[in-house]
Amino acid sequence: MATPPLRFVARAPRSRFGRVLKWMFWSVALMPPLLMLATCGGLASFVLSDDEEVAAGALMFGTGLLGMLWTVWLLGTPLMGIFVLLTRGKQIVIEQPPPSA
Questions:
Q1: pLDDT reading at 101 higher than 80
Q2: Which long-range contacts (CB under 8 A, 24 or more apart) does 14-19 make?
Q3: How far apart are CA 13 and CA 100, in angstroms?
Q4: What is the pLDDT of residues 37-90, one digit of tens each?
Q5: Residue 41 DSSP SS3
């Protein structure tokens, strides 16, 4: 019975462009939720203000900013994820012939 050849499969390292895209993906995936929390925490004192105009302005600003952050997060993460997958290193297959007995 013939033994199958020994096969080793690996990936080449990412290019510099691929590494930059991977860092951009992680920043797009992690920064908007952190900024959303910071926005909610930072606007609390203004929204609870006694002045109605200040409270209304803070609510409008917060709503617009949270909408932009949600949009960037929900559209940017899948798009950047696709780019990260497309910039992976090439697959390398190394085969060693079976030992002759």
A1: no
A2: 14/87, 14/88, 14/89, 15/87, 15/89, 17/87, 18/84, 18/87, 18/88, 18/89
A3: 34
A4: 999 999 988 988 899 999 999 999 999 999 999 999 999 999 999 999 999 989
A5: helix
Characterize 42-75 residue by residue with b for buried, 16 or more Cβ atoms within 10 angstroms of its Cβ, and e for exposed.
ebeeeeeeeeeeeeeebeeebeebbeebeeebee
Of residues 32 and 99, more confidence is placed in 32
**Residue 101 burial by Cβ neighbours in a 10 Å radius (0-12, 13-18, 19+):** exposed
What is the mean predicted confidence (pLDDT) over 5-26? 92
User: What CA–CA distance (Å, rounded) separates 62 from 39?
Assistant: 7
Domains in the chain: boundaries: 16-88
> What token pair was written down for 21?
């895209």
